[in-house]
Design brief:
alpha+beta, 3-stranded mixed sheet, 5 helices, 3 strands, 28% helix
Length: 132
């Protein structure tokens, strides 16, 4: 059988297709994350459903940077030498939560084997709000 004799590939059933967001919610979410310099596991782990979550105004925040010190075979987060922790990252997550009017949030973090405390303290850090 030659290439010209191949049958056309059947179309996927409608129930299997996803529709990409068409409202402004996704763009607002992208803009907010960019403005506050926040990372999400949605993007870093290349979640195929992040369009749907962001369209609904939700995300899973990822703190302690976007570079992991481990190279797990099942994970798509970048493995590289991490940048230093950002002292005000928890405040930026809180600001995003406030602006998104969320009642609860999910926070995860990259592995930080380069730090003695593995970045545990960033989860409980209490800082005074920035004077902006």
């Amino acid at each position: 059988m030659t290439i010209t004799e191949l049958k056309p590939r059947p179309r996927l059933p409608e129930w299997l297709r996803i529709k990409l967001p068409t409202s402004d919610n996704f763009a607002r979410m992208r803009s907010l994350l960019d403005e506050l310099k926040l990372h999400t596991v949605c993007e870093s782990a290349k979640c195929p459903n992040h369009w749907e979550c962001w369209e609904k105004g939700t995300a899973t925040f990822m703190i302690a940077g976007d570079r992991c010190t481990r190279a797990c075979g099942f994970c798509a987060v970048s493995t590289a030498k991490p940048l230093p922790l950002e002292a005000y990252e928890p405040m930026r997550v809180a600001e995003a939560t406030r602006r998104m009017r969320l009642r609860h949030i999910v926070i995860t973090a990259v592995a930080r084997d380069d730090l003695a405390d593995a970045a545990r303290t960033i989860f409980g850090r209490r800082l005074k709000p920035c004077a902006n």
